[in-house]
Design goal:
heterodimer; A: alpha/beta; 19% strand; B: alpha/beta; 8-stranded mixed beta sheet; 9 helices; binds magnesium ion
């Protein structure tokens, strides 16, 4: 059985989150792999939102633009997604409120929701739909019952009972009236898989890495990380504070960090702009801090709930003056977990600001994982032992590696001074040119150690590639899948993914890129920020980049289509015979994945 | 003890006192002070700031940390001028005062820090005058005993850049509140906060305890945040929740 993509769409507030959440849990618990994206508008009611869940027998790293099963909670969903329907496709809809439209590829399956809800109460409609969906997917009702009970448990026994009855009705309706349409899903791993989104991965990673203090100001799409950490903060002895603005949130984190608590903040572009001076303060005062910047398209308010990779240049350079920093951009939720834990440790080890660049796609997408290795995400303490540090204590002691032993406030017999001016070794203000030189050099001495730290570029794909697709951050999934598809079609492609972008892994980049036939950067911005970074750091000029800046996530088909369109490189293979067939028939091909006419 | 400051003449204080310090950014004394106190609630935190630092650039933090009622003593060196940048109007500069940047005189209404703090229920609000050394020292000690955000606005001349509000000017107007003033009476306190011009009251204007941030925050009553450790078992439990 092939992968199945199911899209659940409706207006904000219509309950698509309920259906999606329960479905995701059921799929992961029964061992199916999923990759699910959320696509929502920046509004509380109305509009059009959807979740697309890709179900597979093996791990998937990206979204698709195709839908096999559309669950339409309103008429607009049918209209919006007609273009993306596979041939054949099923459209599940409420018999009363949503009507079939003329589409050759689609079979419309009406569900009599009003007639199925207990007491004629519409609130149970989502459970009817859920029952119908799992029925059509050929899943058992039994494991779903537990999920329904957990989901509605907080609303009391009666609510649980009625939702169970509603789901059973929807389930039975498909079994009795549409048995011939029931699919068989891939078996999967036959044991429960972990279900995690990028926000949870980043939050969990920071917690594993010893996070003690988090302060932030709400801003989409970063808030879900702050929510996750805060939900567990009380129990873990972490302090979470909603700041009055982002200037406060980063400066609060610096104060907490100076006092010895591992500190982090979360934000998105506009909030990050406000933090710039605080990040510069982290630079000169050598205060560890982790800044999660979850990108969305700018400038200014841009598209608040959409995705982009536009802030790389910003985090590489932000904060006036010169100071070293780490910049990470994990590719998957799994990598986000290890990166976040590592970021907490590295901030402390080198006493520098550490950026984690995520984006809406990374934090809002769900993926299944076989598990996480907590051994690889262990807390490593880097505060100095007060008994072993010489007195009088010098907060900014000049050392061969640029890192001074750090004591928290309150250490016996030590005056601990953090300062935003040029300071001497004790942290007192000075304007001595010799000290200015020494302190600047001290900070940059750290780069030697920082460059040796992990999260270096990874390679995936053909061993003797004639095309290298280079990416960073969440573009990993789409590029990896594109490489698989290209190679399956007889091409020789590889992916090179950068997680650590500062200090830039120059040696590794040169080794990976020099002498390669065709190097193309794939990234979510207009100016190819990684392409220019590579040119700056390695003098290697990459080919024409594949860019996306419409706020929507990359998919493998987008990558392949655009490689063909903008590149001089000719695709030697005929990209999958199936795609050609589909293209000829037309109906089920969306604009962005339609095979190029220039083939 | 930890002394936190922003930037300004007054905010250089941590460099002159032999204690722990955090000398941060202009306007941003309160956020790191809050962070440090939250991370280690056993620290005694004192903030030293100027009228520009605290009420101008840092005005938003002033409002919200009064609301937070974080347990710290906030001393504002109020010379009614931007000293370090050589004499521009500050939020407390009087209307009509001419500076290089307000050549026709200030048209903005002065900020009233005491009234703002009282209206937001800061538990301890006082005013002093820098020439009154023992009196000021005594007020600082009382502020340190208060539970929550304790504000002392200290009037002081800027001999270089404020030629109007001189030591003489303050001396002629300032008077110490006597026992007839009831600092627990909010309406009376507000009245005193608005008293300015011919007569300027010094002393504890408002003194009404209210639960502080540390006191009210669940889990902040034991081991300080910074010295806690997340156990692997706790992380494993979170991981378990993802299945
Ligand atoms: C972000 C920022 N803006 C402006 C300045 C310049 N600046 C330094 S101190 C100051 C005003 C100081 O006035 P006040 O806080 O009243 O302190 P005083 O010098 O009078 O004690 C200004 C505008 C700065 N350092 N940082
Ligand atoms: Mg001043």
């Amino acid at each position: 059985m092939q992968d199945v993509a199911i899209t659940i769409g409706g207006a904000a507030g219509q309950g698509l989150v309920t259906i999606s959440d329960m479905l995701l849990k059921l799929l992961s618990r029964t061992g199916r792999h999923v990759f699910a994206i959320q696509d929502y508008m920046s509004r509380v009611r109305g509009g059009h939102n959807f979740m697309r869940i890709r179900i597979s027998g093996e791990r998937k790293f990206a979204n698709t633009e195709k839908t096999n099963i559309l669950v339409a909670l309103d008429q607009r969903t049918v209209v919006e997604h007609l273009e993306s329907l596979e041939d054949p496709a099923l459209v599940l809809h409420d018999t009363e409120t949503v009507g079939p439209v003329d589409a050759a590829c689609a079979t419309f399956v009406g569900i009599p929701i009003s007639a199925s809800v207990p007491d004629g109460n519409k609130v149970f409609g989502n459970s009817v739909a859920f029952g119908a969906v799992i029925s059509i997917l050929g899943l058992d009702l039994e494991p779903a019952k537990e999920i329904i009970s957990q989901h509605f448990g907080g609303k009391g026994r009666e609510a649980v009972e009625k939702n169970l009855r509603a789901a059973a009705k929807g389930y039975a309706h498909i079994k009795s009236d549409h048995a011939e349409l029931i699919l068989r899903l891939p078996d999967g791993i036959k044991k429960p898989a972990m279900l995690i989104n990028g926000a949870e991965a980043l939050g969990l990673g920071m917690i594993a890495g010893g996070l003690r203090f988090i302060s932030a100001y709400p801003m989409s799409p970063s808030t879900s990380i702050f929510n996750y950490v805060t939900r567990h903060a009380g129990k873990l002895g972490i302090l979470s504070e909603q700041a009055e603005d982002e200037i406060a949130s980063v400066n609060m984190a610096l104060g907490a960090s100076a006092a010895g608590a591992r500190a982090a903040t979360t934000t998105s572009g506009g909030g990050l702009d406000l933090m710039a001076e605080g990040i510069s303060l982290a630079g000169i005062s050598e205060t560890p801090v982790v800044i999660n910047n979850i990108q969305r398209p700018g400038p200014a308010t841009g598209q608040p709930t959409r995705t982009a990779q536009e802030d790389l240049d910003l985090v590489l350079n932000m904060g006036h003056g010169e100071f070293p920093r780490f910049v990470f951009a994990p590719g998957t939720a799994e990598e986000a977990f290890y990166t976040a834990a590592g970021a907490m440790n590295l901030a402390d080890k080198y006493q520098v600001p550490v950026f984690i660049l995520g984006d809406q796609l990374l934090v809002d997408s769900y993926t299944t994982l076989p598990g996480l290795d907590l051994e690889k995400a262990k807390y490593q303490g880097h505060l100095a032992d007060p008994a072993k540090v010489a007195r009088p204590y010098k907060r900014y002691l000049l050392t061969p590696d640029g890192v001074s032993p750090r004591l928290p406030y309150g250490a016996e017999g030590a005056r601990v001074m953090f300062d935003s001016h040029l300071h001497d070794e004790t942290g007192l203000i000075t304007e001595e040119p010799a000290m200015a030189k020494k302190m600047t050099e001290k900070r940059f001495l750290k780069l030697r150690g920082m460059s040796r730290e992990p999260f270096r570029p990874v390679r995936y794909g053909h061993k003797k590639p004639e095309m290298s697709l280079v990416c960073w951050g969440s573009t990993y999934g789409a590029v990896r899948e594109a490489v698989d598809l290209l190679n399956a079609g007889g091409a020789r492609a590889e992916m090179i993914h950068f997680n650590r972008l500062s200090p830039f892994p120059v040696r590794e980049a040169v080794a990976l890129l020099r002498g390669k036939k065709s190097v193309r950067v794939v990234e979510g911005n207009h100016s190819s920020q990684l392409g220019r970074l590579i040119a700056r750091e390695t003098s290697i000029k990459t080919g024409e980049s594949v860019l996306r800046y419409d706020g929507r996530p990359f998919t493998a088909s987008y990558v392949i289509e655009n490689l063909k369109r903008v590149g001089k490189w000719k695709l030697k293979m005929s990209f999958s015979s199936k795609a050609k067939r589909r293209g000829a028939r037309g109906a089920a091909t969306s604009a962005s994945s339609r095979p190029s006419k220039r083939r | 003890m930890l002394l936190v400051s922003g930037i300004g003449q007054a905010a250089k204080l941590p460099h002159y006192i032999m204690t722990n310090g955090f000398n941060g950014l202009h306007g941003r004394a309160l956020p790191p002070a809050f962070g440090a106190k939250a991370a280690n609630h056993r620290l005694t935190v004192i903030v030293a700031s100027g009228d520009g630092d605290m009420y101008g650039e840092g005005g938003n933090h002033f409002i919200h940390n009064v609301r937070r009622n974080i347990e710290m003593t906030v001393i504002v060196h109020d010379n009614q001028i931007y000293g370090l940048t050589k004499g521009q109007a500050s939020p407390t500069t009087a209307k009509g005062v001419k500076t290089a940047l307000q050549p026709e005189g200030v048209v903005l209404t002065p900020f009233n820090p005491l009234a703002v703090a009282i209206s937001l229920d800061a538990p301890f609000v006082a005013r002093s005058f820098s020439a009154e050394i023992d009196f000021t020292a005594d007020l600082i000690l009382k502020a340190m005993d208060a539970k929550g955000f304790a504000l002392i606005d200290v009037l002081q001349p800027c001999v270089s850049f404020n030629k109007i509000n001189t030591a003489q000017w303050y001396r002629e107007r300032a008077y110490k509140l006597g026992p007839e003033h009831d600092p627990t009476d909010k309406a009376r306190a507000l009245e005193k906060a608005f008293e300015w011009g011919e007569k300027i009251p010094l002393g504890i204007i408002y003194d009404k305890p209210r639960p502080g941030y540390v006191e009210q925050t669940v889990g902040l009553d034991s081991e300080p945040i910074f010295s806690r450790i997340t156990k692997t078992a706790d992380v494993e439990e979170l991981v378990g929740g993802l299945y």
